[in-house]
Every structure is written in structure tokens, then in C-alpha cells.
Amino acid sequence: HLSQRLAAVADYVPQGARLADIGTDHAYLPVNLAKNGVIVSGIAGEVVSGPFKNAEHEIKREGVSDQVTARLANGLQAIAPDDRIDTVAIAGMGGALITQILTQDFDRLAGVSRLVLQPNVGEMTVRRFLMTHGFQLVAERIVAEDGHTYEILVADRKSDPEQYDEETLRFGPYLLAEHNEIFIAKWQRELARTGAVLQQVESAHEVPAAKVTELQTKMQQIKEVLQRVG
Ligand code: SAM
């Protein structure tokens, strides 16, 4: 039984996929997908030994050792060409770290046609990475659980992905078009939070002008979007 957040990630793993879940911790995602017959094989990648042991334990306990293998490795170094991985999931970390993992060993994505990414923060960074690395966003989901809001970004390989403007990169093309209650609540909170940060910055001894402009621009963008859709 997966959390709502991981269930939303699982929804975008294609039937018959060969999945690598990078930063897998307990390997809940690949174990669940193997048990449900969605994936034919899975790599559960972890860089830290404690979570790696969690993954090994869970795979054994749930009896899916034939399909799912835990590997102790940094990022995409968990996968090799022989694995013929076609789908990579990375969930539950910041967008900057997700982007760093994908960039570091980008050549290992050669056979990968789908990425399912769930950044906890920094979604804009991830969208920008996809757009500049030959991946087209094909779906987005926003999920509220335990007082947090999570975005799931799904992208497929495409030689000429759509080029988005700043606003679309910040809010997400699909989430913006859908603008559901979770989306609106997220950006109302984000507007208030950004306003508080701006106040703090402005009360500093030496005010960094670039930072002030950045925060003001962000607030303006949020206000415009909320006015349009809220
Ligand atoms: N993916 C699971 C989820 O969404 O529930 C676990 C998320 S957990 C918060 C993040 C995991 O990523 C940690 O177990 C951490 O050790 C792992 N991690 C961080 N950097 C990594 C890297 N470069 N390569 C592999 N795993 C990494």
C-alpha cells in the first residue's frame, strides 16, 4: 500500500516497464509495481547504506527478488546498459538534487524513454532541465498529503521538446491549465511565504537588490496567475 504521493508516481510507470527507482529508500515503489505486475524488472538504487538495507529487506520480505534488485550506488551509476532500463523514477528529494543526479551521468539515460520525477521543492529547475535535455513534459499531478503539497512531473524523450516561458516553467503547463484547489492553495501559501521572505530581505542592513527584484518578480507572477485562475 503506497502513500498518495508514491501512488501518483506509480500511475505514470508504463505497463511492462523496466524501472530504475533512484533514491529508493524502502523500495516501496518498485516492490509495489512488481507485485502488481506493472514492471517486468526493477532496480532499486540507493547511495546510503541504511536505506539500501531497508530496500534489500523489503524486496526479500515481499518476495519480489526475482524482479527487483537493490543496488548501492550514487545516482544513475546504479544502472548499466544490460539492465535495459526504459523508465527512471526519482522521488522525494529536492529539484536541484534530482537535476544533479540526471545531469551527472546523463549518458546512462540513453535507453530511457520516460522519467517520472517528484521534486519536493524546486520544480522549476526540473522543468527547465527536461526542456533543455530532450524530454517533453507529458503529464503533471499535484497531490496534498500530511500537510505537504507534492508535484509529479512526467516526461518522455523527444528531440524538440516544447520551449516554455518563465511563467509556465514556474507553475507547470498542465497544472496551470487544470488549476485545481490544491494548486491554488499551494500558490496562495507560496505568495505569503515569499512576501515574508521579501520583508526579511528588505530589513537587512545591506539590501541585495538582485534578490529583492527576484522575489518581487516571483510575487508578481503568482498574483497574476491567481487573479487569472483563482
Ligand atoms: N524515493 C523514496 C520516496 O519518494 O519515498 C525515498 C525518498 S528519501 C526522502 C530520499 C532518498 O534518496 C534517501 O534515501 C537518500 O539516501 C537517497 N539519495 C539521495 N541522494 C542520492 C543519490 N545521489 N543516489 C542515490 N540515492 C540518493
Explain what this protein looks like in three dimensions.
With 230 residues, this protein is α/β, with parallel strands linked by helices. It has 2 domains: 4-162, Vaccinia Virus protein VP39 (Rossmann fold, 3-Layer(aba) Sandwich), CATH 3.40.50; 181-229. Helix content is 45%, strand content 23%. The chain has 9 helices and 7 strands; from the N terminus they run αβαβαββαβαββαααα. The chain has helices spanning 4-10, 28-35, 49-61, 95-104, 123-132, 166-171, 173-178, 181-202, 209-229; strands at 17-22, 39-46, 68-72, 87-93, 114-119, 135-145, 148-157. A 7-stranded mixed sheet has the order 3-2-1-4-5-7-6, with helices on both faces. Strand 6 (135-145) and strand 7 form a beta hairpin. Helix 8 (181-202) runs antiparallel to helix 9 (209-229). The longest helix has 22 residues, at 181-202. It is elongated. The mean pLDDT is 97. The structure holds S-adenosylmethionine.
Number of strands: 7
Report the β-strand fraction as a percent range.
15-25%
Uncertain residue segments? none
CATH class of the largest domain: Alpha Beta
Query: Taking strands numbered 1, 2, ... along the chain, how are they ordered across the largest sheet?
Result: 3-2-1-4-5-7-6
What is shown here, in short?
The protein has 2 domains: 4-162, Vaccinia Virus protein VP39 (Rossmann fold, 3-Layer(aba) Sandwich), CATH 3.40.50; 181-229.
How does the SSE layout of this entry go?
Elements: H1 4-10, E1 17-22, H2 28-35, E2 39-46, H3 49-61, E3 68-72, E4 87-93, H4 95-104, E5 114-119, H5 123-132, E6 135-145, E7 148-157, H6 166-171, H7 173-178, H8 181-202, H9 209-229
Parallel strand pairs: 1-2, 1-4, 2-3, 4-5
Antiparallel strand pairs: 5-7, 6-7
